[in-house]
Amino acid sequence: xxxxxxxxxxxxxxxxxxxxxxxxxxxxxxxxxxxxxxxxxxxxxxxxxxxxxxxxxxxxxxxxxxxxxxxxxxxxxxxxxxxxxxxxxxxxxxxxxxxxxxxxxxxxxxxxxxxxxxxxxxxxxxxxxxxxxxxxxxxxxxxxxxxxxxxxxxxxxxxxxxxxxxxxxxxxxxxxxxxxxxxxxxxxxxxxxxxxxxxxxxxxxxxxxxxxxxxxxxxxxxxxxxxxxxxxxxxxxxxxxxxxxxxxxxxxxxxxxxxxxxxxxxxxxxxxxxxxxxxxxxxxxxxxxxxxxxxxxxxxxxxxxxxxxxxxxxxxxxxxxxxxxxxxxxxxxxxxxxxxxxxxxxxxxxxxxxxxxxxxxxxxxxxxxxxxxxxxxxxxxxxxxxxxxxxxxxxxxxxxxxxxxxxxxxxxxxxxxxxxxxxxxxxxxxxxxxxxxxxxxxxxxxxxxxxxxxxxxxxxxxxxxxxxxxxxxxxxxxxxxxxxxxxxxxxxxxxxxxxxxxxxxxxxxxxxxxxxxxxxxxxxxxxxxxxxxxxxxxxxxxxxxxxxxxxxxxxxxxxxxxxxxx
Length: 566
Hints:
There is one protein chain. The chain is mainly beta. It has four domains: 1-103, no CATH class; 119-231 and 242-260, no CATH class; 268-369 and 382-472, no CATH class; 478-564, Immunoglobulin-like (Sandwich). A hairpin with a 4-residue loop joins strand 43 and strand 44. It is globular. The two termini are 14 Å apart.
């Protein structure tokens, strides 16, 4: 059996393994152990929980698919998860140093439950590469959710969370959310996930729900996610693809949102709650039903949004149902900035909608457009409708340095929102704007190329796909599956770099110890390939076991699993 050959590795399989059920393996796993689960002819009809944690000293408890295989956890006919207070396929309460990687999780019918639920407190939890679907039956008291992180302990947070490259689809999260971080949750990365065809909010970061915690989701990042068709069935349908409700100090960047009720919403539903310090940058938001970007409390009796920034976003033909919210909808909000964006209206020509509650918000250096022309464009500011961009600018004092002009997208009909080299968006941005070191455009290229940033999510440069075409240079930061895998004695690692920058490629063992650094240098944009010979930094052959190749460029990382089998 695999477990007798590999230290700290447990095999779950229909036959020939250490255990035949996932829960049995978890019940016998200790800190530092890795559980590899093989696929079989039928799913694993189980609802599971983690009875113990890993540790900083001994390492993670890693539950993962056997490389190259696709194990399924299926709740059909399975009793409620006895470990959880709701009905969850995978449950963790007050656990730390845990990884869940590579499963298909499906088929629960419950008024309140999740594909994966993390509750209480804990740290260093990674949910990667999972597909979660057919979580059905959500009700007003809860919802049938994909991934739920509930920080319920006011004194001890859930922190250092990674939720990466998961696919959540065909779920019933109403009245809750498909992927949510709520309460005392901090220091998180929600990246590269695909959320689609869910009946309420796609991704949500929440505070102010005192039934759970007096604390709020904070100090995190939501990046490179794609959310499609998050549409609510109740109260006329106002589900956002990505929503911050009472959270603070969160970066929402480089996401794509389309066909949802609302694109990206920064709000505060609960009275007395202030959402602040949220940065919404370099996102593409197009053809959502009722608006592109919206910020503010939705009513005089709700909370407020203050000191947030919205920069470098591209909004195209949102408010598809023409309910009167336009591309940018401002509610009860104060002291926020909207700069360096592109807003392109549909044939109702409505660009901004705002009524009472829009106080001291600053809007400038944007590119506005409607096909009917500048004189037909409509801007609603504090309840007053202005027809024509010049009339709006003169009356409100807003957008003094902005332009009304066609942004010259490469092919908006095919959802290609790159701008041509001669676009009026080039160098339109605020001359005082300085992008952060980690900030990039929609192609993971430098956010500023020249003296001023371009408006919208695309930065034209000598290496952009707008100039050379997408077939020449990679647009994404990717670490591809290694081959062969399992391997002996060597394996090939291939990765794609969208920018020329200092790059590290390292190998780590299952206990979280660095084995060897393969790359530590500035590497050029393009596809790179390197061979690992299964040896450590001292040149000694590594033992049979589970390893991780980790690629890092700036703040971004990618990881793939490797199995050395002798």
